């Protein structure tokens, strides 16, 4: 039964509030089998940044630029926390990511006038299965990312490679630096394809996730991008395989990646490399 729950809004959370929100997200992950917040939102919770944090006694929502995520503690659902958080955001145009294609989230979204818009797949492949040999185009070599040297070039190529992508194409130097400061960051797993003049043509940034819940350790194709003028020369496939070999050599048995269901070129590439759909995140839209 939906009740009215008071909402507090803040630009930044105190250390105790950060702990509370992350504990709430952990409780939801335990109950739902999927972590309810994206990496971007967790980084904003922990480090601050643009965006607004909304909280009820048992719910949390993050909102930035008309897009948000929300989660309610599993022991306090159907008590109006989700509705109150949405109410505090107001009747404006809004996008919400729901991680996992949960029927409860679907019912809540429909009840509040949202429709399904984008679907983001997580695909996986065993790294114990053999990888194809994909040669690099002539004159192209692969080297590791050099912190303090490669940042500007990477931000530029990333923006071009993801010009059509609503989130990835907007990453700034700060978005890169905040990730370089994370404990998981490993420049040896951040592969750059360069020409003979050392100009950046494309990259494959991998990220290793330790085992969590039911998930084994995962080596993620975190961001893979090729400068548009270098498309269709086999560079994406060669960079993918080079990164997957790096992950396999590091002892990982599973590779994962996220891709928009509608990104035909990327989905085709990943299917050819043996990836299959593992789960889906749904972007709901109202407005
Ligand atoms: C989806 C979620 C945020 C809903 O939060 P909540 O506080 O339980 O939602 P409310 O109590 O405000 O529910 C409002 C209405 O939505 C609908 N609804 C919510 N959860 C539902 C469910 N599991 N099954 C069917 N209908 C549901 C109902 O119509 C409900 O009204 P009612 O209880 O009077 O029937 C919560 O289940 C959650 O945290 N899920 C995991 C994170 C997630 O998926 N977030 C993205 C949401 S789009």
In short:
With 287 residues, this protein is an alpha+beta fold. Helices cover 31% and strands 29% of the residues. The model has no long low-confidence stretch (mean pLDDT 95).
Largest β-sheet summary: 12 strands, mixed
- The termini sit apart by 26 Å
Instruction: Report the count of strand segments.
Output: 12
Strand arrangement within the widest β-sheet reads 1-2-3-4-5-12-6-11-10-9-8-7
Strand residue content: 25-35%
Indicate the CATH topology of the largest domain. Answer: Aminopeptidase
Task: Give the count of structural domains.
Answer: 2
Please report the number of helical segments. Answer: 8
Class by SSE composition? alpha+beta
Low-pLDDT regions: none
User: Helix and strand string, N-terminal first?
Assistant: EHHEEEHEHEEHHEEEHEHE
Q: Regarding CATH, which class of the largest domain?
A: Alpha Beta
- Helix fraction? 25-40%
State mean pLDDT (0 to 100 scale). Answer: 95
Shape: elongated
Radius of gyration: 20 Å
Looking at CATH, the homologous superfamily of the largest domain is Gcn5-related N-acetyltransferase (GNAT)
What does this structure look like?
This protein has 287 residues and is α+β, with helices and mostly antiparallel strands. It has 2 domains: 8-113, Aminopeptidase; 123-279, Aminopeptidase (3-Layer(aba) Sandwich), CATH 3.40.630. The model has no long low-confidence stretch (mean pLDDT 95). It has helices at residues 15-32, 39-47, 81-89, 103-111, 151-161, 173-180, 235-249, 264-272, and strands spanning 8-10, 52-55, 59-64, 67-72, 94-99, 115-126, 141-144, 190-194, 200-209, 218-226, 254-260, 276-286. Strands 1-2-3-4-5-12-6-11-10-9-8-7 form a 12-stranded mixed sheet, with helices on both faces. Coenzyme A binds at residues 1-2, 28, 32, 36, 59, 70-72, 77-83, 96, 98, 102, 104-105, 107-109, 111, 284.
């Amino acid at each position: 039964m939906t009740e009215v729950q008071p909402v507090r809004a803040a630009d930044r959370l105190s250390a105790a509030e950060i702990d509370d929100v992350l504990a709430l997200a952990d409780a939801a992950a335990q109950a739902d089998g999927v972590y309810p917040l994206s990496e971007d939102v967790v980084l904003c919770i922990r480090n601050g940044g643009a965006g607004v944090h909304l909280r009820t006694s048992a719910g949390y929502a993050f909102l930035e630029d008309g897009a948000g995520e929300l989660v309610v503690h599993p022991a306090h659902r159907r008590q109006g926390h989700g509705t109150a958080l949405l109410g505090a955001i107001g009747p404006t145009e809004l996008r919400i990511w729901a991680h996992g294609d949960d029927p409860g989230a679907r019912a809540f979204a429909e009840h509040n006038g949202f429709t399904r818009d984008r679907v983001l797949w997580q695909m996986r492949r065993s790294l114990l299965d053999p990888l194809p040999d994909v040669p690099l185009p002539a004159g192209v070599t692969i080297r590791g990312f050099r912190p303090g040297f490669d940042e500007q070039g990477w931000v530029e190529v990333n923006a071009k490679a993801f010009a059509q992508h609503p989130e990835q194409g907007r990453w700034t130097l700060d978005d890169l630096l905040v990730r370089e400061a994370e404990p998981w960051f490993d420049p040896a797993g951040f592969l750059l394809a360069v020409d003979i003049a050392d100009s950046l043509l494309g990259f494959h940034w991998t990220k290793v996730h330790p085992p969590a819940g039911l998930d084994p350790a995962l080596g993620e194709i975190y961001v893979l991008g090729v400068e548009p003028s270098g498309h269709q020369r086999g560079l994406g496939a060669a960079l993918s395989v080079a990164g997957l070999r790096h992950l396999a050599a590091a002892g990982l048995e599973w590779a994962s990646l996220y891709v928009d269901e509608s990104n035909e070129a990327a989905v085709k590439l990943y299917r050819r490399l043996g990836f299959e759909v593992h789960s889906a995140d749904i972007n709901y839209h109202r407005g």
